[in-house]
Write a structure and sequence with these properties.
It is built from ten helices and ten strands. The chain has 331 residues and is α/β, with parallel strands linked by helices.
């Protein structure tokens, strides 16, 4: 335990007083022993004090000094890290609903698994957090504005509809706008509530072609960084996923839709967030569990003096009690 972990470390200086009391007690005991040895008639001394004093005679004072030590630490205000649920924070779940989510490399399909994990994430998020939902394909839309009610989010996740193309940047910009709107509505604080975007996608951005375009994913990530909204990206799927796409001849062809880890990793880095990968329901749930811990709780230092006070009371009481039992008087 370091000095920074005490609310009032100046009280630790009282430990010097405790140390002086220990030294003083030792000096007094040594003087008593010397005075006893000055008794010149050793035969008479043996008759007067035939047995050596028990070491237990030091127990009461030892317990009292330990109690004083515990009280001193308690006065210094020890603290410890505590995990407490966040309140007023905003989380926007941004889900890719492009046609590549039909791929069955993750059984029964990427979309079905994403829906299951998304609902589980909503249920597990701490109650004080405002959760919203954005779905994006070629365009993006807010399906659920940030709210502490989880039922609307879970219902919206159940009814996600797939569409063509992937506009990752639009999904991020839409989420940022929803976060800003909620901050404006809440108001009353010097700073807006902390916010996080959780972006789950399986493919490469197709609209616009360049992620550095003014409406591209990288540009959106930079804007998120400026606004202090980190983006946690989840690359969901495998490198061998395929989907059946209609062709111009009226038939269909199977097209590979591998996950695009590099771009999602770059978005996370540009925004100051973290990058995750998942290729199964189990892995996706683990990612969401990790995010729930990071987003749903914050670490703060709280008072930890109570155990020291309890130990101090117990040691002091035991010292007084042992003095009465062993010496028939208080120390």
């Amino acid at each position: 335990m370091t000095l920074s972990q005490f609310a009032a470390p100046v009280w630790l200086a009282f430990l010097l007083v405790v140390a002086l009391l220990i030294v003083g007690y030792a000096v007094v005991q040594r003087r008593r022993h010397k005075q006893l040895l000055r008794f010149t008639n050793m035969d008479l001394l043996e008759k007067v004090a035939p047995a050596r004093p028990s070491r237990l005679r030091h127990l009461p004072m030892a317990l009292l000094l330990i109690g004083l030590l515990m009280f001193t630490v308690a006065l210094a205000g020890p603290t410890k890290a505590k995990k407490i649920p966040r309140n007023r924070a905003t989380v926007m779940l941004v889900m890719d609903v492009s046609l590549s989510m039909e791929a069955t490399d993750v059984k029964p399909s990427r979309l079905v698994v994403a829906q299951q994990a998304g609902k589980s994430f909503a249920e597990g998020l701490t109650s004080g957090i405002n959760l919203g939902l954005v779905a994006f394909a070629g365009t993006a839309s807010v399906l659920v504005s940030p709210t502490t009610s989880r039922d609307a989010t879970k219902a919206a996740v159940d009814h996600l509809q797939l569409s063509e193309r992937t506009a990752t940047g639009e999904g991020i910009f839409t989420a940022l706008q929803s976060i800003q709107t909620l901050g404006d509505v809440l108001g009353g604080a010097t700073e807006p509530p902390p916010a996080r975007i959780v972006l789950m996608s399986d493919g490469k951005q197709t609209v616009p072609q360049s992620p550095d375009d003014p409406r591209g994913g990288y540009t959106a990530a930079r804007v998120a960084k400026q606004r202090g909204v980190p983006i946690s990206t989840i690359s969901f799927g495998t490198s061998y996923g395929t989907v059946q796409i209609p062709n111009q001849s009226g038939g269909s062809e199977r097209v590979p839709v591998p996950v695009d880890d590099p771009s999602l990793k770059e978005i996370a880095q540009l925004s100051g967030g973290e990058f995750f990968t998942a290729s199964s329901l189990e892995e996706l749930n683990k990612v969401y569990d990790t995010l729930e811990e990071q987003i749903g709780y914050e670490m703060t230092r709280g008072d930890a003096s109570r155990p020291w006070l309890i130990l101090g009371v117990l040691a002091t009481t035991a010292g007084i009690g042992s003095a009465l039992v062993l010496r028939q008087r208080l120390p």
